[in-house]
Amino acid sequence: MAAGVTTFWTDVREALAGGPERDYTQGPVGRAILLLAVPMVLEMALESLFAVVDIFWVARLGRSAAAAVGLTESIETIVYAIATGISVGTTAMVARRIGEKDHEGAAVAAAQALILGVVVAVAIGVPGAFFARELLELMGADPQTLAIGTAYTRIVQSATPILLVLFLLNAIFRGAGDAVIAMRVLWVANFVNLALDPCFIYGWGPFPKLGVAGAAVATTIGRSVGVCLQIYTLFHDHSRVKICRQHLRIEPAIIRRLAKVSFTGMIQYIIPTGSWTALMRFTSTFGSAALAGYTIAIRIVVFSILPSWGMSNAAATLVGQNLGAGQPERAEVSAWRTGLYNMAFLGCLGLVFLLFPTELVGLFSADEAVRQAGAECLRIMSYGYLFYAYGMVMSQSFNGAGDTATPTWINLVCYWCLQIPLAWFLAFRMGLDERGVFWAIPAAESVLAVVAILLFRQGRWKLQRI
């Protein structure tokens, strides 16, 4: 037992330290999962810190300020869906090339992903910034929330290219197996955001007092620093994928293949984020306290689940690299084993949310009505955590294989055909109000997990070509 514990912590230290290039298609599967998952879990946790830190400071400005951030984040989830969709295609293609030991092909794929990402980011960021106020009105913001939140929304939308490039570059590192680099980039970016958030929000020291908009400024600066570090790493031979100047020319054939996988991946993530937007809109009809409580609860959930996405991303990388190496059975074992680890983690976390929901929400707001709504949301959502665990891993494993179509269809049925109608029915027809919206979440996620497991067992993803 003692020897096993010692080995575990030795592997954890090695995972955090990075070091020489590793071959994740060889050796014990459990160790490969650990070496990839540890930095990926920390990467995802650090990415979620941007949202948690912002709401921690902003919530102290009042209900309208918290509601403004919540509505903006609902709008921004569409951007996240697009960024994640392109990232899925990028990770799958880079991982497959690395598994084939084709490092030049991986570099070309990475460069084409960046070109595609920048074009898409500009196309959605510019109109988003221009119509910031109209977007908030569309989401049901009241006059006070509009007055407080328009500047925040405009800055967030303007920074879309920075966000997208940050996502894509870390997707390249993950696909290559360089998860430590992605983690370290977010360490630095989050440190900058942590330091600047209260300064710009409250005007500490020489900084201007910008209120809610200050949170957007701090986050944008932090992410910009992270992007600079990523670009330096990719262009200076510090990763398994090195992009050179000649890779930046447009390769139509590769962009078409990448766009095909990425487009389905975008739709895959737009579907649930569209559903989340609808749920936010439903919740907004029950008052600012319900909306603020829901916003805080979702931020807490995001903070807890993103580490699980880190484990799921590890599964995606292992599936992609092992398929590239001609080892489909090892790819399948990697997915099932990661799902088991994720279930153990989320099961413990769900228990914490069941026992201490009011205390957790109380860290962000002293408003009793907000605390009650947020605690109710946390408690209800925690019932589905064991299902979330496998659903997340199975979906990402499909993506790692380059099969983005299967999880897209699963999402369409479970979110748009089940979650949205169920939330509306429970909230407005059954008279459960915001609690009806909350109950629709674990119901849909549980069905999604069962369907994903059944389809993954069929094994058609092993035949995917990318």
Structure, briefly:
This protein is an all-alpha fold and about 475 residues long. The chain is about 80% helix and about 0% strand.
Description of the molecule:
- This protein is mainly α.
- It has helices at residues 2-17, 29-58, 63-99, 103-130, 132-138, 143-158, 160-176, 179-202, 212-235, 252-284, 288-324, 328-355, 357-362, 368-382, 385-400, 405-429, 434-458.
- It contains 17 helices and no strands.
- The chain has one domain (28-463).
List the helices and strands and how they pair.
Blueprint lengths: L1 H16 L11 H30 L4 H37 L3 H28 L1 H7 L4 H16 L1 H17 L2 H24 L9 H24 L16 H33 L3 H37 L3 H28 L1 H6 L5 H15 L2 H16 L4 H25 L4 H25 L8
Helix pairs in contact: 1-2, 2-8, 2-9, 2-11, 3-4, 3-6, 3-7, 3-10, 3-11, 4-6, 4-7, 4-10, 5-6, 6-9, 7-8, 7-9, 8-9, 10-16, 11-12, 11-14, 11-15, 12-14, 12-15, 14-17, 15-17, 16-17
Descriptors for this entry?
466 residues; mainly alpha; 82% helix
Count the domains: 1
The biggest sheet amounts to: none
β-strand percent reads under 5%
Q: How many angstroms does the end-to-end distance come to? A: 43 Å
How much helical structure, as a percent, in the residues?
Answer: over 70%
The radius of gyration computed from the alpha-carbon positions, rounded to a whole number of angstroms, is: 21 Å
Q: How do the helices and strands follow one another from N- to C-terminus?
A: HHHHHHHHHHHHHHHHH
Q: What would the average pLDDT be, to the nearest integer?
A: 87
Rough shape? globular
What is the number of beta strands?
0
- The secondary-structure class comes to mainly alpha
Number of discrete helical segments: 17
Extract low-pLDDT stretches. none
